[in-house]
Amino acid sequence: MSDIRTTRWRLPAAAAAITLALAACTSPSASPGTSGPAGGEPADGEVVMISSQLAPTAEAELMSNEILADFEGEVEFIGAESGPFNDQINAQAETGEGDISLIGGLDGEFQAFAANDVLTDLSDVAEELADLGINQDYLDLGKVGTDQQLYIPWMQATYIMVARTEALDYLPDGADVNDLTWEQLTEWGANIESETGERKLGFPAGEDGLLHRFFQGYAYPAFTGGVNTTFTSDAAVEMWGWMTDTWQYVNPQSTTYGFMQEPLQSGEVWVAWDHVARLIEALESDPEAFVAFPVPSGPEGKAFMPVVAGLGIPTGAPNVEGAKEVIKYLLSPETQATTLSAVSFFPVIGSELPGDLDPGLQAEADAVAAQTAADDALPALLPVGLGDQGGAYSQVFKDAFAQIVVEGQDPAEVLAGLLPNLQDIFEATGAACWAPDPPSDGPCEPQ
Questions:
Q1: Which has more pLDDT, 396 or 108?
Q2: Strand-pair category, 302-304 with 377-379
Q3: Among candidates 164, 5, 196, which has minimal Cα distance to 82?
Q4: Same domain assignment for residues 292 and 441
Q5: 217 near 308, Cβ under 8 Å?
Q6: Which of 397, 433, 426, 429 is nearest to 414 (CA)?
Q7: CB-hemisphere CA count at 13 Å for 124?
Q8: I need a surface site. Which of 97, 150, 160, 183 has the fewest CB within 10 A?
Q9: Does residue 363 fall inside a structural domain?
């Protein structure tokens, strides 16, 4: 996942190494397991877990040697890239034979598995974990449009805001940094520019930046309540007008920024939006100099894009009970804290985490928790079902930004001109609408 794999995450393992790992399903466990405060009941037999997350070699080692270390049982963890990952699970479902008892993957991957009817109902596990306060929106995602719990949320990443502490002196009167609106962010930028003569807001609008995710998961749903089905709406035109107005207070170097942590650290930017993995180095380098906080709200709510990973059990799994014990273990507060410290994926539970976290990581964790628990929280999923058209889809939003905000063209005309591109993508892929757009019967129909 390019949104997660940045300089803080290592490059994926070679395909040959993954193939060997898949062939090693019956090898001795990489995590023999010992007793510990977070351990579940010992499970009979080894649990083979395959995951598209934590697949790079260094992360897989952390999963086996740290995250799973206190599980009272044996787990063979196999990290695999999307191709081998999907092939292995689907092959087991087709033949009814295989070693895999537990799946770790992204919401979009589980959507595909659910469509192939290869997932086991985990409603009983969800009930047992009810006291942990698992985010309800994520639990609903785990039902994949059914009345069954087809996966249990496991961990998450997302995008938040970070500001230098000196910027707090310029907040609009009466504004709460933890409960802002997007209009107040604009006013905040205007205040800074008026008092300092400098444009200190920042967005990652460079070639390697993730600004397209800002529109797909934040601005569009916050202002319009949807993304694809509201692409050319009056509310969308208003959103682009807001962005154009705000851009006069954005550092002009933003069109070169890929990661916002560097301009925050240098002081070029005082207030920024970006992925948690692309902000953490600033917070870790000098936690007293920065504050992390939830994204602002728009007319339709506090929209945000969760990158949700889940845990599921395939039909025909050889060790269902053992897999359920691993799920319970991975959702325990102790293990969620270990996961956060080891690989910087954030908890999905509401329970307080034990132990002391690095101050910078704690600041991000608090911002993520406040964002997901907000009364007006509006999760907007990553694109689902686009396959190799994902790049073309993101390009539509990049083009809209370039033409409307950078070049100053009329928003309504630009959106009308780009709409056929969006429609062609859905016709080619057959992808259905995803949240927060209402579900579609057949391909999504952008309008």
A1: 396
A2: parallel
A3: 5
A4: yes
A5: no
A6: 397
A7: 8
A8: 97
A9: no
Cβ contact 289:164 at 8 Å: yes
271 belongs to a structural domain: yes
Residues 386-410 have pLDDT tens digits of 878 989 999 999 999 999 999 999 9
CATH code of the domain in which 154 resides: 3.40.190.10
- The DSSP call for residue 422 is H
Q: Are residues 108 and 237 in the same domain?
A: no
Q: Does the N-terminal peptide bond of residue 296 adopt cis geometry, omega within 30 degrees of 0?
A: no
Instruction: Find the domain containing 127 and state its range.
Output: 15-158+307-355
Residues in the chain: 447
The span from the CA of 228 to the CA of 415, in Å, is 11
In this structure, the answer to whether residues 172 and 260 fall within a common structural domain is yes
Cα–Cα distance for residue pair 33/42, rounded to 1 Å: 9
Closest by CA to 414, choosing from 373, 406, 30, is: 406
The structure's pTM equals 0.79
Torsion of CA 367, 373, 374, 380, to 10 degrees: 90
Classify residue 295: in a domain, yes or no: yes
Residue 232 neighbours by CB under 8 Å, 6+ apart: 412, 415, 416, 419, 447
Q: Which residue has the tokens 């090693």?
A: 24
